[in-house]
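Notes from the 1:1 (GR / supervisor)

We went over the backlog. Supervisor wanted to see one worked example end to end before approving the batch request, so GR pasted a single chain during the call. The sequence is below; no edits were made to it. Supervisor asked that the structure be written out right there so they could see what the output format looks like.
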Amino acid sequence: MQRLFQLQEQLLGLTPMEIVRDCASKINWDSQLVAIRGPKGVGKSTIIRQYIKQHYAPNDLSALYCSLDANYFVEHSILDLVEQFYRIGGKHLFLDEVHKYPNWSHEIKEIYDFYPDLRVVISGSSLLSLMQGDADLSRRCVNYDIQGLSFREYLRFYEGIELPVCTMDELVTDAHPFVAQVYKQCKPMAYFDKYLQYGYFPYYKNNPVEYYAAIANVVRYIIEDELPRICKVELGNTRKIRALMNILASSEPYEVDITRMSVQSGLQRPTILAYLKYLSDAKLIHLLYSDLVNVKKLQKPDKIYIEDTNMLCALASRPVKEGTMRETFAISHLSVGHELEYGKQHGDFVVDGRYTFEVGGAGKNFKQIADIPNSFILADDTDYPFGNKLPLWLIGFLY
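Structure output shown during the call:
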């Protein structure tokens, strides 16, 4: 136990506090059980350690952060830890990399039931949701999903430019005041292309040369380690899944042809549909459906996108086309906190069943969405709104 507190102090000492992401303030840290989920590299561990530094004095034994892949847990269980921690007055326990601990959900459930005054925060893979049913944690746990950096957060982290969030209502009602506010502080188009290539994951500044290699390693880790361990994917199929990801990254936004995907990847149709769902849950891809209300289990999606533009650049075997980059950026931002559907013949995306968005270049016209109410063009290479034509970069301020 003493060693765990020593490790915590070392880690907290290395945790930067210059910028704390806004999503940290939206977490109800006082809930009895909180799960913070997200793909590797988006900053979950940093958010937790920053919270501890902000709210607990050094050497305060009432709070403890530890990673469940530490050597301590080779010989000790989570229950052993909690028993000792609670005995010395522990009040707030933070368990990182929880998905690496076998049968974690059963022990967490027991802690929840027998230590009602202990606050527990668990953190791990986006695939945590697939395991919580084992011990019926869904009704006990408050879940928070952490995304990569938005364009707004990139400007804050890397350029020192502080700007507020633009709500969807502001976006579709009258974006002019917000855009004017942005232009008082910066010219967003001067930074936008760099964000599309390097701005999504918060570790670019620490290792810019190896940035794409690091992203590729994260994807490989999820496919080769997390999918077999968490989703029981056959180890022999992980190479085919990686090939499938490369196919998706090197194609234009994928109008789904399961037969062609089966031939290219060497996987059977039901297996492909199951694996696509896993990849979506793992936050490696977006699956778009044209009718969310009637989506059935293992139904073929209408369109597939890589999760974000940085991952797209890291995985693509050829230069990414502008249209693919635009649409991938749009879906990565419009999908945060909103329901997103494929627009089929009328626009690219439908948001919350109310707003239709068509993505294109500065010269994009309204031909495809001319008769659709509440329809908008998101135009690249555009500085200011003009009627229902909005700058594409603007949706980068939605979170």
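Supervisor's comment: The chain has two domains: 2-145, 153-397.
Batch request approved.
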